[in-house]
Amino acid sequence: MHVTAADIRRALGGGEFLFYYQPKTSFLSGQVCGAEALIRWQLDDGSIVEPDAFIPVAERHGLIPDITQAMFPRLVADFQRTRSEFGETTVALNVTAQDLDTPRLLALVHEAVQRGQIDSRHLEIEITESAVVSGSDATTRSLADLVTAGIPLSMDDYGTGFSSLATLNRLPFATIKMDQSFVLKMLRSSKSANLVKASVAMAQMMGVKTVIEGIESEGVYNSLLHCGCAEGQGYWISPPLAPEDYLLFLRSERRWPASPVGMLRMARLSHTWQQSLLMDEVFAFLRSESSADLTLQGLHTGHTECALGRWYYGAGQAFAGDPDFDALADPHRGMHQSCEEIFSAIEKRSDRPALRKLLEALSENSTRVATCLQRLETRLLVDELSRPRLGA
């Protein structure tokens, strides 16, 4: 079908656009946790025009903001219907730099949040890295405005741009979505699998959530189950669904394999990485003749505020009562106490033997923490292997 700008304007006026919703599942719970809203154009005969046929035309003619303005109320209405039946779920909306260069999207979002039509925590804005990089200063300001309003930002197609790390460092993205080109090759290419899993680990250490798209087989899903990504979507879970079909899908209450092991591994990784980073900076500080270009600021937080502490006193409480989990508390608190004493000793220019004892105490408590986490992880894996497969 050859699409023109006039066709798009006519379809907008006739209300021919609608959203399909592709479900996302939580690797921790195995339940649907939300969906990505994907625009579709439904003709009078019921046939669907795919986005590839009309989105490029709309972009060339500057019609994307018009489509977003016309469709955002539909998104809110669909969300309210879903929420009334199923409680808290999330919905992700794809936007472009054109949307962010005009005030219309921000006005729509602010109005919906202020009226209580949608909670800011339940609306996620997705934008590709290329759109951010090629966008104007207005794009950057709009993204910052959305974050200030409590709207999480997701970088779509992560890994395909030339400056993903720079963009992550510059802008406050809460989520990255791994591009499916890597995911589709995971079972055939160890390099692709390693890239995906290394990206998940890096995001975790930056405090960024990872969503994996393009899950098209059970094998790919299972290979991701323990790697620490938060959510997944793809045709093996479900294709994009019309609103009524999405509601039916939710009512079916399907479950997918779930595991806390990935979450536990990320907590262990954060613990190891943070300790290594701290030790490296302490040694660099001590060895430098001039420490003017080095700082220890930000390397140490309270035991409830570090990545491991947030997990331990948050989602990790699901393991409360487990002897290895409970045994984490004392050595973890001891690590933070050692850190405080190390920083104090450095400031006081304490002698090296005294500092060495403090570093040894830190290392000893760190080993105890790692041992507890490793035993807990091994036991969870063994328990999972003994359970029957879903649907078996």
Give a structural overview.
- The chain has helices spanning 5-13, 51-60, 64-86, 97-100, 104-114, 129-134, 137-148, 164-170, 180-183, 190-205, 218-224, 243-251, 261-287, 307-312, 323-326, 329-347, 352-386, and strands spanning 17-26, 32-42, 48-49, 90-94, 123-128, 153-158, 175-178, 209-212, 231-232.
- It contains 17 helices and nine strands.
- Strands 1-2-4-5-6-7-8-9 form an eight-stranded mixed barrel, surrounded by four helices.
- The protein is globular, with a radius of gyration of 24 Å.
- It has two domains: 5-258, Alpha-Beta Barrel (TIM Barrel), CATH 3.20.20; 263-386, Four Helix Bundle (Hemerythrin (Met), subunit A) (Up-down Bundle).
- The protein is of the alpha/beta class and 392 residues long.
- The model has no long low-confidence stretch (mean pLDDT 88).
Quaternary class = single chain
What's the CATH C level of the largest domain?
A: Alpha Beta
Order of helices and strands: HEEEHHEHHEHHEHEHHEHEHHHHHH
The total count of strands amounts to 9
- Which residues sit in consecutive blocks of at least 5 with pLDDT less than 50? none
| Fraction of residues in H or I helices | 40-55%
- Overall mean confidence score, pLDDT: 88
> Between the first and last Cα atoms, what is the distance in angstroms?
44 Å
When the domains are counted, the total is 2
Major β-sheet strand ordering: 1-2-4-5-6-7-8-9
**Rg, Å, rounded:** 24 Å
* Strand content bin: 5-15%
**CATH superfamily descriptor of the largest domain:** EAL domain
Shape: globular
Query: The biggest beta sheet, please?
Result: 8 strands, mixed, barrel
CATH topology of the largest domain: TIM Barrel
